[in-house]
Amino acid sequence: MSDNIVRLKKSSQIIEVRDLCMYFPVKRTVADSLMRREHRYVRAVDHVDLDVCEGECLGLVGESGCGKSTLARTIIRLYEPTNGSIRLEGTDITHMNSRELRPLRPKMQMIFQDPYSSLNPRMSVRQIISELLLYHNVVPRERVNERVLELMHMCGLSADYADRFPGEFSGGQQQRVGIARALALNPRFIIADEPVSALDVSIQAQIINLLGDLQRQLGLTILFISHDLRVVRHITHRVAVMYLGRVMELGPSEEVFSRPFHPYTEVLTKAAPVMDPLNRSREYAIEGETPSPINIPAGCRFHPRCTRCTERCKKEAPELREVSPGRFVACHCPLKTE
């Protein structure tokens, strides 16, 4: 991470990401081979620096395809990073193999976007949760059933549901099972990847409130990914705004949303749906199309869509720098920061 990025006490950092890159090779065609074109890559995550502090809920927002989920899956080592480093409580896990990662897996858990597809339809709730407890020897075998019921109660599920299967539950109840499973191993770090986007609006608030309550009660450290800015503003302490594989702005959630410094953050907040039916006089949309992550523009990657673009923006990529206490922005021409 650059020297101008805030450095926190080592003891307060659960996750430290430095210069992280995740590139996916593009399949070469016959024409590519005949014309001897260079290998091309989708730069899904491109030189990202990020800290997640103990006990905080850090939001990660951006348009679809900006690299949010890829960043999360790379941090948790579901993907092998192309470059950079990842530290979990000071331990470098960047290039650990599956055997080396096994004792660390209980510390990192994930809540998935689609609860149904993440649960084994042939296993009961009791089996889904107890499987982890038994495999990782979290509690003595004779206490496994007791711990399963504790986790279910913690997540708002009746003990009567223990022997039911995922297909018998609503989407909200399935997500509660997914949350209980994530908590089973007493993790230090949880990634919530769009945990409510597949749920009915009436259920979303219940799951968000549950996550917020659990975060406070258990002191959980959460990376919360969402494209719904209202949800992120409500539940997170800090927020990182991503665009085309990079973090463009970082800071306290309320400050970032109420007074954005990066032009992209500004248009992103303006483009958010307005819930007040009496205040929908004008729809706001971000101009232009997001460039391909295969052919990223030179300089600032947002400059083709930015109204504040200068010649410098077209040639020189800005670094994430602190422009006010706790506020970081990657922009040559940030919005008023006084």
Structure notes:
This protein has 338 residues and is an alpha/beta fold. Helix content is 30%, strand content 21%. It has helices at 30-34, 68-75, 98-101, 115-118, 125-135, 144-154, 171-183, 201-218, 229-235, 253-258, 263-271, 311-315; strands at 13-25, 41-53, 57-61, 83-88, 91-92, 108-111, 189-193, 222-225, 238-243, 246-252, 321-324, 327-329. It has an eight-stranded mixed sheet with strand order 6-7-8-3-9-10-12-11, with helices on both faces. Strands 2-1-4-5 form a four-stranded antiparallel sheet.
Query: Kindly, what is the distance between the CA atoms of the first and last residues, rounded to a whole number of angstroms?
Result: 25 Å
Indicate the overall shape.
globular
Number of helices: 12
Q: What is the number of beta strands? A: 12
Cα-atom radius of gyration? 21 Å
Main beta-sheet strand count, sense and barrel state: 8 strands, mixed
- Binned, the helix content reads 25-40%
* Overall average pLDDT: 88
